[in-house]
Amino acid sequence: MATGWFQRATAVFGRPEPLPQPFDVGCDCGARLQGVRASMPQKTTCPQCGTVAFILPETIYPLPDSLKRRWTGVEETGPEPATLKTTKKSKSSKKKDVSDIPKQPAPAVDPGPTFGERLRDWGSRLRAAATPVRLVGAAILLGFALTGWVIYRRAQWDRALTTLQAALDRGADAVQQQDFAAAAAEYQTAAGALDVLGRRDADALRIRQTALELRSAAGLSPASWSEIVSAWVEGNGGNAATAAGPETWILFDAPLYPHSSGEGESPKVFCVDLPFVVGKTPVDVLIDGRRWSGLLSGSTAYTPKRLLFAAQIERAEKPTKERPEALLYLDGSTAVLWSDPATYSQLRLMPDDAATRAETERLLQGQREFLENHP
Predict the structure, then answer these.
(1) Is-contact 234 364, C-beta < 8 A?
(2) What is the rounded CA–CA span in Å between residue 19 and residue 22?
(3) Which of 39, 128, 171, 228 has the highest CB neighbour count under 10 A?
(4) Are 45 and 17 contacting, i.e. CB atoms less than 8 angstroms apart?
(5) Cα separation values, 194 from 124, 157, 175, 200, 201, Å
(6) For the whole model, what pTM was predicted?
(7) CA dihedral for 244, 229, 286, 239, sign (positive or negative)
(8) pLDDT per residue over 183-206, tens digit each?
(9) Which is it for the CA torsion 266, 249, 198, 141, positive or negative?
């Protein structure tokens, strides 16, 4: 009596009775072997074919709720089916005003990698590509290329040095023989050799200047200046350059002064002080002398400055009712300021008078110094 009371009292605080764990195993003959698992493994015999089946013991782990409900016979209930009224309500809820729907924030725009990130990515790729083998190969190729370039340039310099001296010797001989066309060609070859050598010293500038002077000396007009201008003014055509020839040079030894310039402006066009009249038509000779502005600084119509130069005729303008004089323009862009007394003497233009000769030599020396200071 006391023992039964104690068991019932302890049963209130003890573990609940475990659920029976049924088994349902199929036999090879098609029969079903059913029963309840025990705490120990057991064997059961098929009532049809007598085959013995091994049954595992009941599990000691917690069982899922779905399995407990199935063993106890409680059916699972799904969610309450929606009624027609609920369906209509859901349909009507879809027709809510759009303003009632909370606005979603705009998706953030990915700005992409920054410049620093791209730079680091480029650096990492470069480091990955610049392997030691590739760097060594590139260094070898660069060494071969530099060596080839040095050999090629050394050969060019050697040929230029040989060509330079030979051309200067032949040019000097041609000047002595007064063959100015051949001398101009040889000095032009020497100037090309100086370009290859990259020389810009005073001797190189003097050789280039001599080449220009010899070219103009080779193309000096056989006709006098007065004959050229008279043929143009009295002719029916309007081009004095045609009368002189397209490659004809004219040597001038005359003073120059500004033709016209605004107040405070540097003069650009200078007038060659050669008073010349053909019939009743006065002729003004003009040239763009901006390149010689240092020599012509301070010159005026009352105090012109003397220059010795060679130039070609650029264009000419006939007299008009508003302008009675004819205008003859010399090409200032190709004009050559003379500087070599030896070449000038070979042209047999040096004055015989000692004083005039000395003055002309001083003029040429001043023009040479100007060209050396303003290459």
Answers:
(1) no
(2) 9
(3) 171
(4) no
(5) 48, 10, 20, 8, 10
(6) 0.58
(7) negative
(8) 999 999 999 999 988 888 888 999
(9) positive
